[in-house]
Amino acid sequence: MNTPSPSPQRRRRVPQDIPQDAPVTQKSPERPAYQAQGTKRKPPQRRTKRARAAARIDRALDGSIFERIPTPVRIVLIVICVSVFLTSAVGITRSYLAQQEERRRLEAEAAERAQHPLEYAGLVTQYALAQDLDPALVAAVILCESSFNPQAESRLGARGLMQLMEDTAEWVAHKLDEDNATYSFDLLYDAETNIRFGAWYLGYLSRRFGGDATKIICAYHAGQGNVDAWLKNPEYSSDGVTLDVIPMQDTAAYASRVLRARDVYRKYYFPVPTPEPAGA
Q1: What is the value of pTM for the model shown?
Q2: Measured on CA atoms in the order 87, 92, 94, 95, is the torsion positive or negative?
Q3: At residue 57, what are phi and psi to the nearest 5 degrees?
Q4: Distance CA 249, CA 239 (A)
Q5: C-alpha angle with apex 169: 165 to 173, nearest 5 degrees?
Q6: 266 Cβ contact partners less than 8 Å away, ≥ 6 residues apart
């Protein structure tokens, strides 16, 4: 006969005496790692709402209105948009190019004006018109001769604005009945006297050569006798009236400069009036 073994008895832990004045401390639960690092964890509910909103946007884009438009209509819309874009781009480009062209034109005109100054405009106009001359031609001669310096003097002895030689000035003074005791070559340093004498001489050459600007300028530079000889030479004139070739290189270059300057002075200072049509 087996006798049952006695059940083990649980050993009771003897409680320790805690001093009454000891502070009572409670162990705080451990903080998650993300809170320990100073970051605040977003509630799961907020994250879920944002995810749902993003999902709704994705679904809206996937089923956009543009995709529901028939393909032919979609192609037409694309063509229209591209056409509008290209038209706008071309218009903007043309406007920009036009502005740049206008800027370059204004800069060129400013430079041209700077290279063709005009002084003594009143005297030039007065004495040019008195001799039935183009004031632009007189201004061009002054520019090419002295650059509007009334005290200019060449190595050959020509003086003043229009660089008149002494014998030419004396001859003009005689024609004007001013070759008296009061006349002297030094008067050619005076701007008005010089322009008056020079314009008279140009007017004389204009009447002699029928108003032909090329022959007038050549005679002013090289002498009227040389121009007469060139007109008689078939190598330089085919009809004895028109000067086809200027044989002296320096005179040819001078005539070219004066005629070019005359055109500039006409453009900015002395525009040639356009004749009115008959019966207007």
Answers
A1: 0.67
A2: positive
A3: -65, -40
A4: 22
A5: 175
A6: 134, 136, 272
* Terminal Cα-to-Cα distance of the chain (whole angstroms): 160
- pLDDT tens for each residue of the chain, 280 residues long: 555 555 555 556 555 555 555 555 555 555 555 455 555 555 555 557 777 777 666 665 555 666 677 878 778 878 888 888 888 888 888 888 888 888 888 898 899 999 999 999 999 999 999 999 999 999 999 999 999 999 999 999 999 999 999 999 999 999 999 988 889 999 999 999 999 999 999 999 999 999 999 999 999 999 999 999 999 999 999 999 999 999 999 999 999 999 999 999 999 999 877 555 555 4
C-alpha 194/C-alpha 9 separation (Å) is 149
Query: Which backbone phi and psi does 159 adopt, to 5 degrees?
Result: -125, 155
Cα dihedral: 261, 262, 263, 264 (round 10):
50
Residue appearing with tokens 């207007």:
280
Structure tokens at 244: 């086809």
Q: Quickly tell me which residue has 């995709």 as its tokens.
A: 67
Tell me which residue has tokens 């020079």.
Answer: 198
Name 153's bridge partners.
159
